[in-house]
Amino acid sequence: MQFLENLFSLEGKTAVVIGGTGVLCGEMAKGIAQAGAEVVVVGRSEEKGAERLREIDAAGGRAFFVSADVSSRDSLSALLENVVERTGKVDILVNGAGVNSPTPVLDIDDEEFARILDINLSAVLRSCQIFGKHMLEQGGGSIINIGSISGLGPLSKVFTYSASKAAVHNLSKNLAREWAEQKVRVNTLVPGFFPAEQNRKVLTEDRVAAIMGHTPANRFGEAHELIGATLLLASENAGSFITGIEMIVDGGFSAMSI
Q: Span 227-251, mean pLDDT?
């Protein structure tokens, strides 16, 4: 039992969870905190941040909130400086900020396309550059980029989102290749269908039926079901030889054919 506890323990680690005020990354942040890490919950809403901190505290974890704008390199640099000043380091980074839109492909304008790609893709690159440099200098770390099942294969109704997430998957593999020898691991956590703020608008009755028909588990995922995969990818013990992968948590959706 002690071996297993040490295998997934994050004691003494500092984790920055960008998007930690959201449903999925919020639950991941709580799981990371319960494994022993001090968690920095990053978002734009102080109200949502305070709510997430209360949940983490109630679960016995340690966390603090920092507001940041992922569209700004200066804001992300200030975030790193803030965290390092308070904790001395960053061992784990979760890039989970994201936006979605159900706009039909012929109606997508340049502004919407650029906005979604900036938040979903460019912000991930900026964050990986800033925090990755810190991890390279300190001798290691784990970056977990949140991908999507729509990044593995195109899904209807989320054209730009799918394109941006497919690019995140590719970006993560490239960074993993670049930094493996320096012990900075970069992986993509790929949720299947988990109801959250950004996808509720496209979960119509017909679409839910189609999703269930393609998901062997015949249900949506629950946010806490991402914690196990998160801890595996975050832990330098359990995940020491895992980099450049797409860790799929989807109830069998990607295994389904006809």
A: 98
Question: Which is catalytic among the residues 161, 179, 193, 194?
Answer: 161
What is the pLDDT, as a whole number, of residue 122? 98
- Assess whether 16 carries a catalytic annotation: no
Domains and CATH numbers, the chain: 2-245 (3.40.50.720)
- Rounded CA-CA distance 23/143 in Å is 19
Contact partners, residue 181, CB within 8 Å, separation at least 6: none
Please say if the pLDDT value at position 3 is more than 70.
no
pTM, two decimal places: 0.95
Find, among 214, 112, 93, the residue nearest to 163 by Cα: 112
Per-residue pLDDT tens for 110-157?
A: 999 999 999 999 999 999 999 999 999 999 999 999 999 999 998 888
Residue 158 CB: number of other CB atoms within 10 A? Answer: 21
| Residue found by looking up tokens 């569209």 in the block | 71
Q: φ, ψ for residue 18 (rounded to 5)? A: -80, 125
Inter-axis angle of helices 227-234 and 23-34, to 10 degrees?
60
